Amino acid sequence: GAGAGAQRARVRLSPRGRRLAALLGRPADIRIRRNIAPTPGREDWIAASVRFDSTDSAVLDILALGPEAEVIYPAQLRRLVGQAAQRIAQLHLDDPQPGNAAADPVG
User: What pTM, to 2 d.p., does this model score?
Assistant: First the structure.
């Protein structure tokens, strides 16, 4: 669980994001927020509150859910998750370099 220095973040989770979070056990201590107006176009997403001990671990926890989670606040966590996602996307835009093991067929 989160320690004495824990912070809270507000997130939105898709139905798949909720299942992934339950399966992965992260982020820990997810609390569904009731009576929050749904986001237009994403009425099946839920708002939740999560606790985290460090920003670095929170970024990894959110990234583990891929496009099934969105950080609402704190703004710094939202920005850091966005920056990390951009770096991941940039790594995958081009074909791997020739001779790279990733270019070889798996099998």
Answer: 0.79
Cβ contacts of 66 within 8 Å, gap of 6 or more: 20
pLDDT in tens, 49-58: 999 999 999 9
Instruction: Measure Cα distances from 101 to 21, 29, 89 in Å.
Output: 31, 38, 19
Residue with tokens 């609402």: 72
